[in-house]
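Section 3.1: Structural characterization of target chains.
Under the original work plan, the team committed to producing a structural model for every single-chain target entering the pipeline before any wet-lab resources were allocated. The record below documents one such target. The sequence was received from the expression subgroup and is listed exactly as submitted; it comprises 946 residues.
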Amino acid sequence: MSREETTSETDKAVIRLLDLVQTLAVELHPRQARAGSVGLDDSLQRDIGIDSLGRVELFSRIESSFAVSLPEGVFASAETPRDLLGAIMRVSGLKLEFTPRQTGELKLESVTAAGEDAKTLIDVLDWHASRNPDRPHIRFYQDDGNGEVISYGQLRERATAVARGLQQQGLQSGQAVALMLPTSSDYFYSFFGALLAGGIPVPIYPPMRPAQLEDHLRRQGNILKNCRAAFLITVPEAKRLAQLLRSQVESLNAVLTVDELNRADGDFLQASPGADDLAFIQYTSGSTGNPKGVMLSHANLLANIRADGQAIRADSSDVFVSWLPLYHDLGLIGAWLGSLYFAPQLVLMSPLAFLTRPQRWLWAIHQHRATLSAAPNFAYELCLNKIDDADLEGLDLGSLRVTFNGAETVNPESVLRFCDRFGRFGFRREAMFPVYGLAECSLGVSFPPLGRGPRIDRVQREPFLRDGKALPSEDSQDQALQFVACGYPLPGHEVRIVGTADRELPERRRGHLQFRGPSTTSGYFDKPEESRRLRHGDWLDSGDLAYIAEGEIYITGRSKDLIIRAGRNIFPDEIEGAVGELTGIRKGRVAVFASDDPRSATERLIVLAETHEQDPGARQALIANINQVASDLSQGPPDDVLLAPPDTVLKTSSGKIRRAACRELYETGQIGKRHRSLWWQLVRLWFAGLLPRLRRLGRELMEVLFAGYSWLVFVIVAGLEFLLVLPMPTLAARWWVMHRGARLLARACGAPLAIEGLENLPPLEQPCIIVANHASYIDAFVMVAAMPRPVSFLTKAELASNPAMRLFLKRIGAELIERFDIERGVADAQNALQAARGGRSLMVFAEGSFSRMPGLMPFYLGAFVTAVDAGLPVIPVAIRGTRSILRPDSWFPRRGKIGVIIGPPIEPDISAPDHWPRVLKLRDTTRGFILENCGEPDLAHEKPLL
């Protein structure tokens, strides 16, 4: 035989073998969707999930397909398909003609489509981490040279380490994990670490100024209370400060750093959320002082990301430069998660780096030839007012094709001035991209046409302020109002403008903007009343006022900020902008709001403006100028004008004026008063957290006392059972003692046992195989308490290493199964089969083990092979509640209720032509009943934990 012919035979053998392994893997774990991914060097047990009985079936298929008889030693020694291939080739007399390093060429090609098949953010990360592990994903900007780079593979690896640490700390599926982190690699590792561990990330922002520390911590404390955060991840420097939050939030178990989480070792079970599961909670910026947690599912986010990307034709050739904070949706979803999905490189700098030197943003675009960027309107103003031409020499912004302008009101003057000034540095007008979005729609709602540039609509002032009619204005009318077009609804999304009774208005009529589509939130976390107010049938209320002209959306302001005075509508942001232009007033530090006048039962117009001016005459002149500007815009002077020192006007994390909070300061007489010193704020916060701390200590003390009591009861009851069982003459008598003792233990420990389906158990003289899920150490006691008849437990052989335990297990008829020695394991399975044929009922935890993460894991096949071979029915049993009473890797019991649901007998399908399909069908039917009744998610598509 020639070398070419030999190599051809080798390749054929490889393909046939991998096809056999793949087919069996899919049969054993149909939800893993591993089609085409089995390789010669994958572990049969760890990577592919073939247990000892599955190995028996595989060897049978190999010998039949290749017409060979493999040596018995190969059964136990083969670790990978390559080992099996070597044995096949030796028996058949062929010689391998490839080296062990050629494994990549011998793997079957994947047919899974990128991106579109992803159902969750984890799927998106795994897609790139498996196919592009070394591709740069995030690069941190430095003024000189290149900063730290995070690849997709590194993000996956480091996030897994954080996830392991969170699980070791006790994070349970569905618990909130707050992230109070700056722009850094730790943020990204923590976000995905929380997701991988089964938690829900909740981004919050760190304190900015010591003078407002108390206000900040109270607001963040309200967020943590609302989402019932179990853990807070922060930087070491802020950990002590963050402990003040823990003192006020009873649910907060610990404040951690990423370094602390990275030190954990041990097992890690990856979460497997569904498309409709909660991905994270995005808290609104809270301009009203009452931040609400917007619930966003994986499906919501991916729908919006895909629609955004389609609108701007994003792909992996793009480069996105961003300084946006990662606790805000534009930075988190628009910049990062959009880049994660479409794979452009994301170049990041901190918000502080931009605010201190705005030119850094522009030079980062220049240096990395960015095609995409984004910022709120104030950032464009900052570039216009704070950057000298000398700082821009040599700057080239010609690479930009889209720069989003959103997250706050888009000012037409800012847009025009920016395009004009920076056009000299290569910025193309077509790249300015005013958009509209909000957290309740994940991020984006409407985008303008790509490559058109901004469109500005001029409308007549009087009809608009009086009647809400956006009538086009002639250019000669100096008092015309101007609004920027924010484009058309994204693909798959709809927008409408409504008036009273939710009746849709015609074009060019101002009303309330409502929206709907696949990106929309299901509501606000733990705020049912707010969620009900959000919904109008299947439409959601944006809280914004707008009109539509020629199909495009024009935002005119927030409905809650609209001031009605003498029948006229006054828009605060217009007055704020005009007052901010006055010399002596701090630009962007003006708040205009209404305050109720109890005497006249009308709204009073208040202007609050920050200034450094101290001279009384100059201040009086400023007030006069403010009165004049406000009168020109609202046809009447404001009722009150207050000049305040810097940092009085409150703003949200995204830079929006908190008008409601400013109104509260005004109405409580706090404006102009000196900020409390830092030490006094800390003292007040400490005392404010005293009562929650005492409640937590009391709860922890009661839990410790209960745990000690439970163990004392267990030792007494278990000790008596051990002494009584050993001398009992019959198995029935021994079981009666165990059964009564287990029930007594449950009652004494305050764990009521609810059992359903006892009538489904066959008569005592008829043997069966009882199969249950496994969630806790106490499951065996629960089954003893639930079963009124003797059963023989199939249990792991290592329990018999203790002589006393070995004696006890023997007396109660337990069958030991070796898990680590393959040949002994198969022999033990044969012994169990003989016991079943001899008339004994067997009790099996088919998962073989349990983990901290809630969820039903894949089932081992041993019980089902035994049932088919012995012709016995399987009795499925679903156990609920034991995991929360005594969690894996914990010896701290808690109170709880236990449920046991016993299903009807499932007979092996004798109509199936072959033995193997009978086994798989019996397993799947049994597992289906348990999954439906155990109250936990399905983890069968995870790699088996063997």
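The longest strand covers residues 585-597.
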